Amino acid sequence: MLSDQTTPPELPLVGGFVCLDFCNTLSGWGGPGPRERAGDPAALAVWCAQAFGEIPRIDREEWARLIRLRETLHAVFDAIATGGDPPAEAVALVQAEVAEAAARRRLAVTAAGASWRDAPPTDGTAVRHRLAMDALDLLLRGEPARLKRCAGHDCGWLFYDRSKNASRRWCLMSDCGTADKVRRFRQRQRSASARDS
């Protein structure tokens, strides 16, 4: 259900897992100025079109449940990214979402092999299920040390570092990385000016 409002700009998908990119629809978690990019069902549907290639129908109730899932996933993954244990209540909520999603999966068996099939993300419930299963995949198969929070000032985006030596620090070098370099350069200039005075 897209509104006639101006379509928000696409967010770069930098998380490495769609569940992390979903968390990144809010920037500046816990900071002084969070920036919301999924603030209503229409905005979230636009993000889903980018992430899944399909525009789902999302009603107000489904949107609210997806936003709660985003908060839960962020609590879990941010704790891991910063070296802590995720809150037990957040883990329990992820488990409940995964159980519901898994119950709706269908087993497809052919002569070539078997695979699980998820419903296409055409509504809020199917989107929620996709996100829950993606989170499970990251939790079970990902390396905790590669799950990181962007080092950018007031960013907080999460990403899975797939670099060879796991040295990535920024969501995007062209954004937070450049801003940090500019900030450090200006600090050095101010320090040098203060010494010369």
Order of strands across the biggest sheet? 1-2
Broad structural category: mainly alpha
The radius of gyration computed from the alpha-carbon positions, rounded to a whole number of angstroms, is 19 Å
Question: SSE string, helix = H, strand = E?
Answer: HEEHHHEEHEEH
Low-confidence segments: 1-6
Write a structural description.
The chain is mainly alpha-helical. The chain contains 6 helices and 6 strands. The strands form 3 sheets. It has a two-stranded antiparallel ribbon with strand order 1-2. The chain has a two-stranded antiparallel sheet with strand order 3-4. A two-stranded antiparallel ribbon has the order 5-6. The radius of gyration is 19 Å and the shape is globular. The model is unreliable at 1-6 (pLDDT under 50).
Note the main attributes of this structure.
197 residues; mainly alpha; two-stranded antiparallel sheet; 6 helices; 6 strands; 50% helix; globular; disordered N terminus
Give a concise summary.
With 197 residues, the chain is mainly alpha-helical. Helices cover 50% and strands 10% of the residues. Helix 3 (60-81) packs parallel to helix 5.
Task: Describe how the helices and strands are arranged.
Layout: H1 18-23, E1 26-27, E2 35-36, H2 41-52, H3 60-81, H4 88-103, E3 106-110, E4 113-117, H5 124-141, E5 147-149, E6 158-160, H6 173-196
Antiparallel strand pairs: 1-2, 3-4, 5-6
Helix pairs in contact: 3-4, 3-5, 4-5
